[in-house]
Amino acid sequence: MGAYIVRRLGQGLLVLLAVSFICFVIFQYMGDPAWALAGRYATPKQLELVRQKLGLDKPFYIQYIIFLKNAIRGNFGMSFVSRLPAMQVILERLPATFELAFMAMLLAVTFGVGLGVLVSVSPNSLFSRLIMAGSLIGISIPTFLTGILLIMIFAVELRWLPPFGRGEVIRIFGGWRSGLLTWDGFKHLILPAFTLSTYQLAVLLRLTRAGMMEVLGEEYIKTAWAKGLPPRSVLFKHALRNALIPVVTMIGLQFGELIAFSIVTETVFQWPGMGNLLLSAIFESDQPVIVSYITFVSLVILSLNLLVDLLYVFINPKIRYA
Amino acid sequence: MRKVGIVLVAFGLFLGIGVGAQTIEKVVIGLSAPPRTMDPHGSDADSNLSIMSNIFEGLARRDVNGNLLPALAVSWERVDPYTWRFYLRKGVKFHNGNDFTWEDVAFTFERLKDPGVSEFLATGQLVKSVQPVDGDPWVIDIVTTRPVAWFVQNMHQIFIMDKESTEARSPGEVASYPIGTGPYKFVEWIRGDHLTLVANEDYWGGPPPVKKVVFKEIVDSFTRLAAIETGTVDIIQDIPLELFDRAKANPNLLIVTRPARRGMFLGMKQTPEYPMHDVRVRKAIYMAINVQELIDKVMFGHASPAAQIADPPTVGYNPEIKRLPYDPETAKKLLAEAGYPDGFSVTLKAPTDRYPRDEETAEAIAKQLAKIGIKVTVDAKPKAIYFPEVTHHDVELYYLGWFDGAYSAMRTFTKLVHSYDEEAGFGLFNAGDISDKLLDYLIEQSDTIVDPDLYVEWSQMTNRIAFEWKVVYIPLFYLEDSYAVYKPSGINFTPRPDTWMTIVDVIQP
After folding, report:
1. CB–CB of A155 and B230 under 8 A?
2. Which residues, at least 6 apart from A225, have a Cβ–Cβ distance to it below 8 Å?
3. Nearest to B143 by CA among B115, B109, B104
4. pLDDT, tens digit (0-9, with 9 covering 90-100), for A36-88
5. What is the DSSP string of A99-160?
6. How far apart are CA B219 and CA B240, in angstroms?
């Protein structure tokens, strides 16, 4: 087990190296940030001065080595735009993104698994057919469209919920600014969380349904029915538990994705999270922020994957890592 | 609207006449472009200067018509081609209580030279020294490295910083917590969300009538419109062209538009091996473009024709310059006279993500030029690729927009018209390699003219020669700035030409 973890960590490190290297290669084609930073009336000499100051005058592999050297010490460089440490700029956005992803996950799990079970019981009923059709829409409709439709209906027409932003936040332990603890903050969270969850909800629903249908055909379920156990006990105690293993894996992986790919939702709802930051950093060619963001998100996904793999051992004792 | 409680405050006694002035508790503004930094020198983007102009002040300021007015300097004069004399305002305090002195001015200009914090390197490196005159700390001479006639025209966007607190803090702190002399004090900035300012009751110009300002970042244009439709914000910038009719149809919204400062134009490669070297060909292209059709069909009417690049508030704008008429017949004759009776082939480069409907405009121009036999291939690409090609002068025909932050047509000309000179920094954006001895001379000499009236006339003359006689560029149209005001908020809003949201100017109680 110990050797397995060490090997996985080693692989993770290689992935991080590869990801950051690819970033630097892409930067070569992203346009020269010195243009934006020297001002429109800068002379070629002043542009050169800016490049020197930012280290952009060096060949890109040298820039990459310097980046690695600093990154080992936890220094991911200064944002060209805000002139603050890039990692700080990203981490101050983490609470917003984390709370959004958490809420979206909660919605996806509750409704995805819950409806999945319901649908599996009577797969041919009208209700099930409607739900399955709905899940197809959930998978295929683009996020920005979901967001725009929800804003149109619930904010502009019905005026039930605010159209954008994070609302009132309060500071809890340290710098974590939470919107979950105020009514205003919660109201602001509903639409973006729902938007972000639609795809994952649909995937979980279909996965739960498939797993349940398979398990429900097993001999031991038939035995449980035959014993005259109440349906709740058969469905949730016997069937769902066994159908849940792939679902739990999926949830773990999805949470990483929700954090990483909330970009569109955050932009439509002007949610002050990391995805929103990434988009503006791309517009401004803010290379240190882009590479720090991608490194950070890779780290989150790698850690979650490792965690899921380890949790597997506990859920399913048949699995061993040697 | 409920949050804009209107309170009457006795303001009278001034000149012995009882005058009532209203105060507004709070205004919420939806910004299309978020602030980049709270360092007033850290960004020369108008979206950033816009915010900074509430917290900081320059030696001069501009009003809603673009006129230059005194601010931290009460007056100024140009003593000789190299020297500008400023008479500083006494009794001004920074928000931290420090007094405003000449040393803050000297510090500011020194700071502009530092590429680590400043996007105003060009201005910083123009300044040789800042010194009090005859030991009087309220009169200073700013000496420039070369004669610069428009120097003071730029002073509304060079914001003066407090020497003591800026030196004492790290660049990161300075860029997060601004301390200026302006009518508003900084409260908080949650990046990606909002920026809050409160009225500086001790402001030298008197307490500002709007007591609290919240700038909300709403980058997505649909969401921004939804925000004002629900009354979540009082004013938004930039109504997208596609949603304009929807906004107009909403009875709760007041739509405010004005011509933008940015003039759009067509640049042309003018070295001898290209047909556009011949002024008759340049005129033919000019006369073959139906600019009204571009405005009506491509821009949906949200643009106004331009006969020059400069806009009316710019020094050197010449109202006498007229567009050449749209006349494809004459254009064909001019082409034939120039030796191209069957036209020629040329590539038109344009960005796809920089100006409203940029690619569509280029496509439409290509179709119009086809009618006189010029075969145009449109090469539209993202700005990150397009702009480096322009600055490397790797173009034949190209579509670009420009306005001058210092309101000086001659400063624009040093970049766009003067022949390329790396040492002096001239002609960097002269992608068509215009090389005209007369224009070069007129541009260079303009900076040595000390008499302000003569300078204006000289600039106007140079401008007219460039656009009517030499036809170095083909001006197309000015873009349009648009805003929506939530009517129930009862706010009176007047936009500035530079799109700055300088609250004391744009909102009238």
Report:
1. yes
2. A234
3. B109
4. 777 767 788 888 888 888 888 888 888 889 888 888 888 888 888 888 889 99
5. HHHHHHHHHHHHHHHHHHHHHHHSTTSHHHHHHHHHHHHHHHS-HHHHHHHHIIIIIIIS--
6. 11
- Tens of pLDDT along B417-428? 999 998 888 998
- The answer to whether the beta carbons of residues B196 and B190 sit under 8 Å apart is no
Strands B253-268 and B397-402: antiparallel
Give residue A118's Cα distance to chain centre. Answer: 27
Who contacts B135 (Cβ-Cβ below 8 Å, separation ≥6)? none
What was the pLDDT predicted at A322?
Answer: 58
Q: Does B358 touch chain A (CB under 8 A)?
A: no
Kind plus residue range of the DSSP H or E element containing B479:
strand B474-486
| Rounded distance between C-alpha atoms, residue B35 and residue B43, angstroms | 9
Site of tokens 């969270």: A189
In A, residues 273-292, which contact B (CB 8 Å cutoff)? 273, 276-277, 279-280, 284-285
Across the range B472-488, mean pLDDT stands at: 97
Tens of pLDDT, residue by residue over A207-218, are 999 988 888 888
Three-class DSSP category at B402: strand
Provide the 10 A C-beta neighbour count for residue A1: 10
Burial class for B345, CB neighbours closer than 10 Å (0-12, 13-18, 19+): exposed
Burial class from Cβ neighbours inside 10 Å (0-12, 13-18, 19+) for residue B103 reads middle
User: Could B415 and A41 be called an inter-chain contact, meaning their C-beta atoms sit closer than 8 Å?
Assistant: yes
CA distance B139 to B57: 18
pTM of the model: 0.89
* Subunit contact A83:B191, Cβ cutoff 8 A: no
What is the distance between the alpha carbons of residues B156 and B399, in angstroms, rounded to a whole number?
A: 29
For chain A positions 81-100, those within 8 Å of chain B (CB to CB) are 81-85, 89, 92-93, 96
Is B113 an 8 Å CB contact of chain A? no
Contact B191/A156, CB-based, under 8 Å?
no
Q: pLDDT averaged over chain B? A: 93
DSSP alpha helix (H) spans, B135-213: 163-168, 171-174
Contact A273, A100 (CB under 8 A): yes
Which is it for strands B136-144 and B127-133: parallel, antiparallel or unpaired?
Answer: antiparallel
**Does any CB of chain B come closer than 8 Å to the CB of residue A28?**
no
Quick one: three-class SS letters along B11-30? CCCHHHCCCEEEEECCEEEE
User: How far is it, in rounded angstroms, from Cα A172 to Cα A188?
Assistant: 18
CB contact under 8 A, B424 and A43: yes
B119 in contact with A at a CB cutoff of 8 Å? yes
Is the CB of B226 less than 8 angstroms away from the CB of A273? no
Q: Are residues B230 and A276, on separate chains, in Cβ contact within 8 Å?
A: no
- The C-alpha of B369 sits at a distance from chain A's nearest C-alpha, in angstroms, of 31
Query: Assign residue B231 a region: left if phi > 0, alpha if psi is -120 to 50, beta otherwise?
Result: left
Neighbours of B300 (CB within 10 A): 15
A162 contact residues in B (CB cutoff 8 A): 230, 232
- Which chain B residue's Cα is nearest to A51? B115
Bridge partners, B305 (sequence order): B477
What is the C-alpha to C-alpha distance for residues B293 and B493, in angstroms, rounded to an integer? 31
- State the Cα–Cα distance between residues B506 and B473, nearest whole angstrom: 34
HSE (CB half, 13 Å, CA atoms) of A101?
25
Residues paired with B198 in a beta bridge: B185, B212
Residues of chain A with C-beta less than 8 angstroms from the C-beta of B37: 81-83
Is residue A280 within 8 Å of residue A267, measured between CB atoms?
no
Q: Does the CB of A73 have a partner CB in chain B at under 8 Å?
A: no
Give chain B positions within 8 Å (CB) of A29: 384
Binned at pLDDT 50, 70 and 90, residue B21 comes out as: low
SS3 content of chain A, % helix, strand, coil (to 5): 75, 0, 25
* CA–CA separation, A282 and A275 (whole Å): 11
